[in-house]
Amino acid sequence: MTTDVVEVAGHTLxxxxxxxxxxxxxxxxxxxxxxxxxxxxxAGELLLAALTSCAMANIQANAEADxxxxxxxxxxxxxxxxxxxxxxxxxxxxxxxxxxxxxxAAELLADKFVSTCPIYNxxxxxxxxxxxxxxSL
Length: 137
Prior knowledge:
Layout: E1 9-12, E2 19-24, E3 27-32, E4 41-42, H1 43-65, E5 72-81, E6 89-99, H2 103-116, H3 118-125
Parallel strand pairs: 3-4
Antiparallel strand pairs: 1-2, 2-3, 5-6
Helix pairs in contact: 1-2
């Protein structure tokens, strides 16, 4: 288990309001604000992508470790921006379909995902967050 600090840095693009460039380990990703051009992936979608990616990686690794033959894994994550409180999501749902296994094996693999994924559990239980702001002229 790694406890390394992970960092993603973001930068605005001066000539394109609402468009951002994210850097993670030398990889670059273009994102858009929901108020921006709406051509690139948006922040809420990145949250769902993180849940989806973690689910597939976790299930695949655990299936291999447990000797469970899996044909393929499909994961779909959804949420809806809050109706009463727009600073939250009303719900987040993760749908997992594991092809090539029976229901018991699928539930076993899903339980292992739920019990070990920090992304899933942070969304499920919440965590503390620190905000550090610096202004400069």
